[in-house]
Amino acid sequence: MTENNEQRLTEEQEKKLTDRINELYHKKEAQGLTKEEEEERQKLHKEFVRNFRAGFKQDVEDLVIVDKNGKEVTSEKAKKAQRKKGLRKD
After folding, report:
1. CA 3 to CA 84: how far, in whole Å?
2. Rounded Cα gap, residues 53 and 37, in angstroms
C-alpha cells in the first residue's frame, strides 16, 4: 500500500487494511483460506506491522523529554531526527 517505509497510512487506508485483515481472520477461523487468501493475509499483516512501526518511530522521534528540574534531556539521536524534520531550531 505504501512505497516508502517512512510513510504512514491515512486513517482511511489503515481502516480498510484492518477491516480486510479481520475479514480474512474470521474466514480462516470459519472455513479456512485459499492459498491466495493466505498470501494476501500475510502481505496485509506485514503492511500493518510496517505502518505500526513507522508510527511508533515517529512518536518516539517527536518526544521532548524534560527532567523534574525543567531541563531538557532529550537524546541526541532524537534531537538530530527532530532537526532533520524541521522540528528543532537549536
Report:
1. 21
2. 24
Q: Distance (Å, rounded) from C-alpha 89 to C-alpha 84?
A: 10
pLDDT per residue as tens digits for the range 47-86: 999 999 999 988 988 899 999 999 999 999 899 989 998 9
* Largest Cα span, the chain: 59
d(CA 50, CA 54): 6
What is the C-alpha to C-alpha distance for residues 78 and 61, in angstroms, rounded to an integer? 5
Look at residue 68 and give its three-state secondary structure.
Answer: coil
